[in-house]
Design goal:
The structure holds 2 protein chains of 2 kinds.
Chain A (H helix, E strand, L loop, with lengths): L1 E7 L1 H19 L5 E6 L2 H17 L5 E4 L8 H4 L18 E9 L3 H13 L4 E9 L11 E5 L6 E6 L1 H4 L3 E6 L4
Parallel strand pairs in A: 2-3, 2-4, 4-5, 5-6
Antiparallel strand pairs in A: 1-8, 7-8
Helix pairs in contact in A: 1-2
Chain B lengths: L11 E2 L7 H18 L13 E6 L5 H12 L3 E6 L11 H9 L5 E6 L4 H9 L3 E6 L5 H15 L6 E5 L6 H12 L3 E5 L12 E4 L2 H5 L4 E4 L5 H4 L6 H8 L3 H4 L8 E2 L22 H20 L5
Parallel strand pairs in B: 1-5, 2-3, 2-4, 4-5, 6-7, 6-9, 7-8, 9-10
Helix pairs in contact in B: 1-11, 2-11, 3-4, 5-6, 5-11
Classes of the chains: A alpha/beta, B alpha/beta.
Chain lengths: 181, 311
């Protein structure tokens, strides 16, 4: 892949997350019954960040879970991947909770669909929101995010990479071009 | 999400002749991941939604059949069970006709147990669908060997250079044959030990010995096989007490192996026959772990034989 440009730097990522945290609090009118569930891998990091920010603003910690959606993908039989199943851990009762599902990039919507199925298998939340750092378009399913850090129109031949301090040593959103596109 | 390309797998698991180390290791890696699914509060994922799996058992079984059925159900496959004893085979229907009849009902994969070696291979020719051998005569029981290898790796780490002793009725054991195919592929040295009448003349992949001390000395793990008491009627053993005196795994004899070498048994066990009854309940025994791992291994087998094939 060929690097094209840096779309968000660390300061812009921080600002986007801060805004999303405020929006989550405002939309919920507080944080009672609120919880965050991050989708592997960057979604978990971003959910932890949002959790810290919300706690900082509201003075109240909110429950945090992690979700693996690998075996919920609807394209498994077509791509025949070696599955990379990671831990799913929701250490609280989902029933009646307002869940904010967190992922790094919203693209076709298939990951979000799989995450909804996985979540609903584990309980019955009162409602589910979707928060993403980047919405790059090209939806294949009628899914939209409730909280978006940045809308970034992209071509299908491009790849959006979200980097985080915790996982990659820096906060950034980068645009890459697939070489064989 | 980072996902690696999976190696191409054979469309069946009849034995390990068509499998290589990369494929087996990839499958065991998937089994590791399936364990994570089994540790979740809801032990079910939709990976095999839309597939129908048949367990076709012409021989009785408890743990293998239930383990396969649960494995398929944990991944949301539909499962039908067929038991030879209550089927049209009692009226003279052949294996081929029975399987072809089932095939008209839209089965996607067959888990087959038969008393005759070779039927699973034939079934693959008749049906051209994924066939998993759940035991054919004395010849092979590959998922048992996979779960044994998985359990050994869990306990010992890599099997590279490890000495595994298999003790008991080697001659009639499909479990031993499959382990002797698989464990050397993963780098282990296998020593098969039993009375001369219960040892084959040769077993490629394993050293053969009638000397239990030789087999157990420096062994990294000891796998005990069920003594099939019906062999007694065929004059293959002088007497049960003599077998026990020569080959029963006791705490003292287990001491010949490396310290803490684990003890495995594919079940069902004859306590106080092939092994000292209480040994199976000690921390060195992996018998229950083998059963638990069986489900994850079979989930991985079903996943790799079915996923990627639908389209």
């Amino acid at each position: 892949m060929i690097f094209k440009s840096k779309l968000l730097n660390d300061e812009e990522v921080r600002r986007a997350l801060t805004r999303i945290a405020h929006e989550i609090i405002e939309k919920n009118k507080g944080v009672d019954k609120l919880c965050l569930v991050g989708i592997h891998t960057r979604g978990i990091t971003l959910a932890r960040r949002l959790g810290k920010l919300i706690e900082q603003f509201e003075g109240q910690a909110i429950p945090m879970g992690i979700l693996d959606i690998t075996l919920y993908r609807d394209d498994l039989t077509e791509i025949g991947l070696q599955p990379r199943v990671r831990e799913t851990r929701i250490p609280f009762d989902l029933n009646g909770k307002a869940v904010v599902l967190v992922d790094d990039v919203l693209y076709t919507g298939r990951t979000a669909r799989a995450a909804l199925d996985a979540l609903i298998d584990l309980g019955r939340p009162s409602r589910i929101y979707l928060a993403v750092l980047v919405d790059r378009g090209h939806r294949e399913l009628p899914i939209r995010a409730d909280f978006v850090g940045k809308n970034l129109p992209t071509a299908k031949s491009e790849v959006v990479k979200v980097k985080t301090q915790e996982d990659d040593g820096e906060d950034a959103v980068e645009l890459w071009e697939m070489e064989d596109a | 999400m980072s996902q690696s390309a999976t190696p191409t797998f054979p469309k069946h698991l009849l034995d390990f002749r068509d499998w290589n180390r990369t494929q087996v290791e990839s499958l065991l890696e998937t089994a590791q991941m399936m364990q994570e699914v089994l540790s979740r509060p809801v032990k079910k994922v939709p990976a095999l939604t839309g597939f129908t799996v048949a367990t076709v058992f012409f021989e009785p079984s408890t743990r293998t059949r239930i383990s396969f059925e649960l494995a398929a159900r944990r991944m949301s496959a539909d499962v039908v069970s067929f038991a030879g004893a209550t089927s049209s085979t009692t009226k003279g229907e052949t294996y081929k006709d029975t399987l072809r009849t089932l095939d008209q009902m839209g089965i996607d994969a067959y888990i087959l147990r038969v008393d005759a070696a070779g039927v699973c291979h034939q079934a693959f020719g008749w049906l051209q669908k994924p066939i998993i051998n759940a035991g054919d005569g004395w010849r092979a029981h590959p998922t048992q060997a996979l779960l044994d290898a998985f359990t050994l790796r869990e306990k010992l780490g890599s099997l590279e250079g490890k000495k595994i002793a298999i003790v008991g009725d080697i001659l009639h054991s499909r479990v031993a044959r499959s382990n002797v195919e698989l464990l050397p592929m993963l780098g282990a040295q296998v020593v098969a030990c039993g009375p001369a009448t219960l040892l084959p003349r040769s077993l490629p992949g394993a050293a053969l010995t009638t000397d239990l001390r030789e087999a157990l000395t420096e062994a990294d793990a000891v796998m005990v096989l069920r003594l099939q008491k019906e062999r007694m009627d065929k004059g293959l053993l002088p007497s049960l007490p003599e077998y026990i005196a020569g080959y029963q795994i006791t705490e003292e004899r287990l001491g010949w192996a490396k310290p803490q070498a684990p003890l495995l048994h594919p079940g069902p066990m004859n306590r106080d026959v092939e092994l000292e009854g209480t040994l199976a309940d000690t921390p060195r025994s992996l018998v229950e772990r083998q059963v638990a791992n069986g489900q994850a291994v079979r989930m991985a087998v079903l996943y790799h034989l079915l996923v990627g094939k639908k389209s």
